[in-house]
C-alpha cells in the first residue's frame, strides 16, 4: 500500500498535469489508500464452528479527479478515477473518464473553496495500526473470543442452569460480531486549495453479541479505540456478562410506556432517523420531517446534538474532509431547536441558491449560511474508508448527544419509577418514509422492566415491537444521563457518543407469541 | 502504458489462475483447500435530478478474493481480497500469489488459535472443529451472458440524454411533485472461479437497471416513493420494457411516470388508520415480493440459521439447534409453497455460485410443510444435505455469504379478482415500500405503497402510509387463497454481511390473502 507522502506526491503531480490542460477551468485531485482488516467471530457451543470465522481484509488505492471543463456546449463537470496507479498515466486515465462523463449541471457553482476555518486536528493516528501482520489480525479476533469463553466458563449461574460445568455447552452459548481495523490515508489538492493536504486515520473497534440461547438471553459488548495497544477483550467479556444478566427474561404487554433508551438505541435512532433528517440533501429534496423548521423547536429543550469531526481522541475524528476542508463542530439541535445541517460544498452551494430555500429551511440565505457549513463532505464507502473512486457525499463523523440537567442512570431510573429500559433495538426504519417520521423496530437485547424506581426482570429478547414517531419521541424526552460512550451501529459511518434518554408515551406492541409454543 | 481493462482479460489470465489455484496452492504444506475468484466489470451509468443531468460515467471494476482452508492441528479458514487496476495487469500473478500466501498465513494462525482454545476451554472447546466443505461435482464450464444490446456498445451520451429526458418528463407530471431522481446503468460482468479441486468456471452476466425516486406533496403531506426496473439483459429492457412470462415491465419512462402519478395521488389520500385486531388482507405480487424476501428468503439462509449472523443480520426461528428445528413440520397453510430457484429469470439468475456449486432449486415450504434451507458447502457439511449453490458475494474482493437467488411464493389456482371479490370487508395492499423484521424473522411490519379498503368485494377508498404487522407463522398459517398471477421483481439493495454487502437478487409471488393488523402513521406526531 502506498504511503501518505506517495499519495501527496501523486496528487500534486496530477494537479500540475490538470492545470496544463487548456479546457479545464477547475480541478480537484483526491488520492487515497484504504485497508479494512476484519475478523468476523462465530462461536456456538452447540453447533460446530470456527470461533474466528473470517480473518480477512480488503484494500484499495488510487486517484480520483473532479474537473470542470469549458466546452462548446458550455461548462461541464465530470468525475473519473483510476485504481492502483498513482503515476501520471493513472491521472490521465482518470481525467479521460471525467471528460467522457462530464455533464452540464445547472446547480453546480464551483469546486470547494477555502471557508476561512483553520484545520485543528493532525497527527492523531496510531502508526502500529497501519502495519498489522496477518497473525496479529487473527490474534485480535481470538482475544475477544477468549474473553467471552472465559466469562462463560467462570459463570456459576450457567453451571447451575445446566446442572454441571460439563453441560454448560448444551445451553446454546453464542458469540458473534467482529474486530475491525480501518486504515485510511488520503491526499487532496485543487485549483482553489493548491497546497496538498494529507490525513491519516486509524481505528480499531469491536462489536459483539453473546447469547445463552436456551434462555433467549442476549447481551452486547463493544469497544472502540484509535490505538492497538489499548485493544483488550473488554467487548467479549461485556457481551457474555450481559447475556448472562439477561437470563430469566419476561414478556411485556402492549401499551404506552416511559422508556429509557440505552446507548445503542439512541445511536440507532440517530443513525436511521435523526441524522438523515438533518442533512442538507434531505432539505433540498423535501424529505425531512424538519422541513422549514431551521431555528424552530423540533425536540425537548433539554436535548442537544452536534457533529464534531475534529475532536482529539474521538473515534470518528479526521483532520480534513474529503473535499480538503477542515472538519469541526456543527451544532444540529441545540436546546431542542434545529440550528444546523450536515453538508458538503455542493449541497451548501445549491441550497443557498435554491429559490425555494425559505420554504425548505424556513429562513433566508443570510440566516441559513451559518447553518450549512460544509464540514461533512466525506467519500465513505465499501465498509469503511475514504474512497478515491467516488464523489463526496454527506456523512456524520462523531455525533455527540448532550442533555441539559443531565443525571446519573440510577437517578433517571428512579425518576421514571415504572417503565422499560431498552438497551438494544433492531431494524429501525422510517416505515412510511423519512418525512413522515414514523418508525418501527424490535427490542432484541440488554433490556429490563423498570419497577418502583429500579431495574427489575430482563425483557425477553424479540418479544416487543416499538411503533412510534421520531418527531413525537424527540419532543417527549424527560431525562438524559450524564455519561456518554462511543457507540457503533452496523454499517453506519459515524460514531455516536450517546447517553441514555428517557421518553414518555412510547408505544410498544407484544409480538411473536407463537414462539412460546414452538417445539 | 498499462493495458485497458475489459472483460476479455479473463481469457488471458484463465490458465494462470487455474494453475495458481491447483498446482501452486497445493504446494503449500498444510493447505487443505483454496479458491480464487476474479471479477471484471465494464459498466456505464447516468443520473438526473428534477430534469437536469447530474452525473454520467463509464468505468471498469477489477478485483479478486482468495479463500484458504489450512492448519497443522486444526483446519481453519483465512481470506484475502483486493481491488485491482490496469497497472496491476503486468504483475497480476505475483499479486495473486501474495494474496494466497496472506490468506494461508491467516488460516494457519487461525487453526493454531482454534486448537489452543479447544484445549483451554473444556467442554466449551468441543464445538471448535475442523472446517469442512461438503463434496460437490467439480466443474469446468463457460456460461455466457444474455442480452440484445451489448452494454459495452451503449453510447454514454445517449444514456445521459435518455435519463435526463425521463427526469424531465417526470418533473412535468404535476405541480405537487417536489423532487425526482432518475438513474440508469448497464453493465457486463465476468466472474472467474478456480479451486484447488480443479474447478474452473467462467460466468458472464449482463445487467441493466433504471431507478426512479420521487417526492410529492399535498397540503403538508408528502409521499416519497422509489422503485426499480431491471433485468439481467441489455439496454433494451429500459427502452422497450420487459414482456416475459414471469417478468413484466413497461418501458422505463412509463414505469417512472406511473410511479410519479401514484405519489401525487397518494399525497392527497388519507392516512390508513391502524387496527387493534386482525383484518382480512389481500396482498398483490409486488407487495409479496418483499414478504417472500423478508419472511421466507432470509430465515432460510443456513448461515443465519446456524447462528453465524447473530450479531448482524440475525438468526432464524426455524432452527434452535441441530436436533430442534422445523424441518418436516407445518409452518404455513397447505396452500403455501415457497422455494428459491437460481434458474428463474431476473436479478437472481445464475448457473454456479461463488464456490463453484451448480445452483439448483431448493424448496423451503411444500404445501405448508417446512423442507429445507439455502446453503453453502461449509454449512451443508454442518447441517447435512447437498450444497444447493447459494454462496454469493457482491464483489470478488469480499467474502461470500449465503444469499437468495430468486426466492418466491409459488403460484396457486385462484383468479386474483376472485380473491378480492370474496372479501366482504378487508384491505388490498399494492406494492411494497419499507420493511422492519424481527431478529429471527418471527414478526414483521411492512408498509405498502397503496392500501385500498375492500367493501363487498370491491375496491373502495385509497389510503397512504399504511401496511401490516403480523407474526410470521400465524400469517403464513392463515393464508386462505393464492393467486395464479405469479410475478418476479428485482430487489436491488439487500444488505447483509460485515462489511455490508448490498446485493441484487430476485423475489416474487402471486396475489395472496391472509389476516394481519393494519399499521398506519402515529396520530398527532407532527403536531
Task: Report on this structure.
The complex is a heterodimer of chains A (519) and B (527). Chain A is of the alpha+beta class and 519 residues long. Chain A has two domains: 4-245, PmbA/TldD fold (2-Layer Sandwich); 255-517, no CATH class. In chain A, 23% of the residues lie in helices and 35% in strands. Chain A contains twelve helices and 23 strands. Chain A has helices at residues 4-19, 88-101, 134-153, 156-162, 234-245, 263-277, 280-284, 345-352, 357-361, 365-369, 409-416, 470-475, and strands at 24-44, 51-71, 74-83, 173-190, 197-212, 217-225, 255-261, 303-308, 329-334, 337-338, 377-378, 393-394, 398-403, 419-422, 424-429, 438-445, 448-451, 454-458, 464-469, 477-480, 485-487, 495-498, 501-510. In chain A, strands 7, 14, 15, 16, 17, 18, 19, 20 and 23 form a nine-stranded mixed sheet that branches. In chain A, a hairpin with a 7-residue loop joins β21 (485-487) and β22. In chain A, α1 (4-19) packs across α2 (88-101) and α3 (134-153) runs parallel beside α5 (234-245). Chain A is globular, with a radius of gyration of 25 Å. The mean pLDDT of chain A is 95. Chain B is built from ten helices and 26 strands. In chain B, the strands form six sheets. In chain B, strands 1, 2, 3, 4, 5, 6 and 7 form a seven-stranded mixed sheet that branches. In chain B, strands 15-14-13-18-25-24 form a six-stranded mixed sheet. A five-stranded mixed beta barrel of chain B has the order 10-19-20-22-26. The relative contact order of chain B is 0.13. In chain B, β24 (487-496) and β25 (501-509) form a beta hairpin. The radius of gyration of chain B is 25 Å and the shape is globular. Chain B has 527 residues and is of the alpha+beta class. Chain B is 23% helix and 38% strand. In chain B, α1 (9-26) packs across α2 and α3 (156-171) runs parallel beside α5. Chain B has two domains: 9-45 and 58-147, no CATH class; 278-519, no CATH class. Classes of the chains: A alpha+beta (519), B alpha+beta (527).
